[in-house]
Amino acid sequence: MSNTDWLTLSLGEVVALQRGFDLSSDRRIAGEVPVVGASGVIGWHNQPMVAGGGITIGRAGAMGVVTRVRESFWPLNTTLFVTDFHGNDPDFIYYFLKNFDFTPYNSGGVQPMLNRNYIRNIPVQIPPYSAQKAIAEVLGALDDKIEANERQIATLNDFCSAWHQHITNRANTNASTKTLTELVERGFLAIGDGYRTKQSEHGKPGLPILRVADVGHGAITPSFTHYVSNAYRDAMGPKVSQQGDVILTTKGTVGRVALIEAGQPDFVYSPQVCYFRLAENSPISPLFMLYWFQGKEFWSQAGGLKGQTDMADYLSLRDIRALRITVPSPADLSEFSRVCNPMQEQSEAARRENHTLTVLRDTLLPQLVTGKISVKDAEPIVEDAV
């Protein structure tokens, strides 16, 4: 691809940046305005400081993380936000900044820091406006499909959550509830926390460690950053993942829950991740338990337990085993499964597609915004994917 019509400018000639605004958590008033920190949206407020959406760059802490906001928002003082695109296409600028490596421009000490004055004069190459629009449209087609899949997953999750609550309400009598300990004692359920690995046990080939940050709401997004050597596989025992495991984060960020889906590689759980492994003859299914962890019955019990210490929120195995769960009748469980199992399959398919689309986008992005491949070459690849 020829870049003869691309311009070499300073970053300050491409975008104008301004530091965000202070807004401590105790000053925030409940509302629908996103509050954007260095790593992205971190809360909500009732009034914006920037109208009509925009782009932020992590200034302090999560330095260089680029976030695009579609609606009016409040950028915190841990961010820089774009105040003027100087005639450039905003969508292209979002992808351009995402590809930009801000690491060499860290002006902080222990905490990474990005100073707009240090980066203003960095020379960059920018294509003409028409090419910017074309590049943004190609990459945007992938992001639009990813966002559509995410909306579908959220809709399916909301429906199954409501259906689970419906089944629970219908079956919710004292005779239909059991403690998790009772289910364990009857051989229906196995519960455990993760493997307390030592640094000396890390290595490849081995099993990736599944940590709290890798657990989302309903599914996992493994980072594959740390591994426990295969030499310690026997010591890990049941703390290695199995298809159908329901997992719950129990320390720090308590309450993230996910289901280990078919096709996932084996993981070893970290100590802050608790697993729930249901037997084939169990009166509850993994999917039923997944939605129980998201529902009122679980949180009405666990909400008051997780903050019992002066340190980070924590749910102990002893507390977890004492929780009571509504055990549906076989007919009710069959009805729940009939309705929600196909929806879970749709969600899993959408997540798999999003993984493929994300990899494709992240592969094409640096090639397109630097002119290494042309839009003409990228368009057929994207059209086949979406």
Inertia-based shape: elongated
Please give the radius of gyration in angstroms. Answer: 24 Å
The termini sit apart by 24 Å
Helix content: 25-40%
Order of helices and strands: EHEEEEEEEHHEHEHEEEHEEEEHHHEHH
What low-confidence regions span 5 or more consecutive residues with pLDDT below 50?
none
Average pLDDT figure: 92
Q: How much of the sequence is in beta strands? A: 15-25%
Main sheet specs: 4 strands, antiparallel
> What is the strand tally?
18
Structural class given helices, strands, pairing? alpha+beta
Question: Helices and strands in order, then pairings?
Answer:
Layout lengths: L6 E4 H4 L1 E4 L13 E5 L2 E6 L8 E5 L7 E4 L4 E2 L3 E6 L5 H10 L16 H4 L3 E4 L2 H43 L5 E3 H6 L3 E4 L13 E5 L16 E3 L3 H4 L9 E4 L7 E3 L8 E2 L3 E6 L7 H9 L1 H7 L14 H6 L1 E3 L3 H40 L5 H11 L1
Parallel strand pairs: 3-7, 12-16
Antiparallel strand pairs: 1-9, 2-8, 3-4, 5-6, 5-8, 10-18, 11-17, 12-13, 14-15, 14-17
Overview of this protein structure:
This protein is α+β, with helices and mostly antiparallel strands and 386 residues long. Helices cover 37% and strands 19% of the residues. It contains 11 helices and 18 strands. The protein has helices at residues 11-14, 90-99, 116-119, 129-171, 180-185, 233-236, 286-294, 296-302, 317-322, 330-369, 375-385, and strands at 7-10, 16-19, 33-37, 40-45, 54-58, 66-69, 74-75, 79-84, 123-126, 177-179, 189-192, 206-210, 227-229, 246-249, 257-259, 268-269, 273-278, 324-326. It has a 4-stranded antiparallel sheet. A hairpin with a 2-residue loop joins strand 3 and strand 4. Helix 4 packs across helix 7 (286-294). The longest helix is centred in the middle third of the chain and has 43 residues, at 129-171. The protein is elongated and about 70 Å long. 32% of the residues are buried.
